[in-house]
Amino acid sequence: MMKRRLSSGDLMLLELVFAIVFFCLSMAAAMSVFGNAYEMSSVAEDRDISVREISSAAEIIRASDSKEEMGSYLLSEGFATAGNDVYEKTYGDGEYRLVITVTGTGTLYSADMSCYYVKSTASHNTKEAFYDLVVKHSMKGGSEDGR
User: Fold this and answer.
1) Fewer Cβ in 10 A, N or C end of the chain?
2) What are the DSSP calls for 30-73, one per residue?
3) pLDDT digits over 83-127, tens only?
4) All residues at 6 or more sequence positions from 94 whose CB lies less than 8 Å from its CB, including other chains
5) In 2-17, which positions are buried (b, 16+ CB within 10 angstroms) versus exposed (e)?
6) Domains of the chain: which residue ranges?
């Protein structure tokens, strides 16, 4: 039986195949890293937009002297009432929803603010808030009904 020896052309072709496989694997790893970086950037952008909206709403709440004044300020900023002291606003081209629930009596009020995604996707859940903040504020005027 004769052993077949690889010629220099066969060795060069084999080396070229190994180089192509190596570069394909390198490209797949690099694409994975860039894909993860894009996803992280997207989440950070979502949170950045939400921080700005929640900060703006928190300043409105802190600047209010009464519950009624707070409600009128929130309505003038584009919020809609959704029932018993609950305010909602969609922002970011309709991608996000900010929900503010105001609780309290007398002069001490608490505003629970939560941001949600409007559309549910594989990476976004509309039922879970992705950003929350609680603002507690003692209003000077209290409410008109004395509670």
Assistant:
1) N
2) HHHHHHHHHHHHHHHHHHHHHHHHHHHHHHHHHH-SBHHHHHHH
3) 888 999 988 888 889 999 999 877 888 999 999 888 877 777 778
4) 118
5) eeeeeeeeeeeeeeee
6) 12-138
Q: Comparing C-alpha atoms, which of 88, 54, 94, 55 is closest to residue 71?
A: 88
pTM, two decimals, is: 0.68
Rounded-to-integer distance, Cα 35 and Cα 28, Å: 10
pLDDT grade for 129, boundaries at 50, 70 and 90: confident
| Alpha helix positions (H), the chain | 8-63, 67-76
pLDDT digits (tens, 9 = 90+) for 19-66: 999 999 999 999 999 999 998 898 788 788 888 888 999 999 888 888
The b/e string for 60-97 (b: 16+ C-beta within 10 A; e otherwise) is bbeebebbeebbebbeeeebeeeeebebbbebbeeebb
Q: Give the CA radius of gyration of the chain.
A: 28
In terms of C-beta density within 10 A (0-12 exposed, 13-18 middle, 19 or more buried), how is residue 130 classed?
Answer: middle
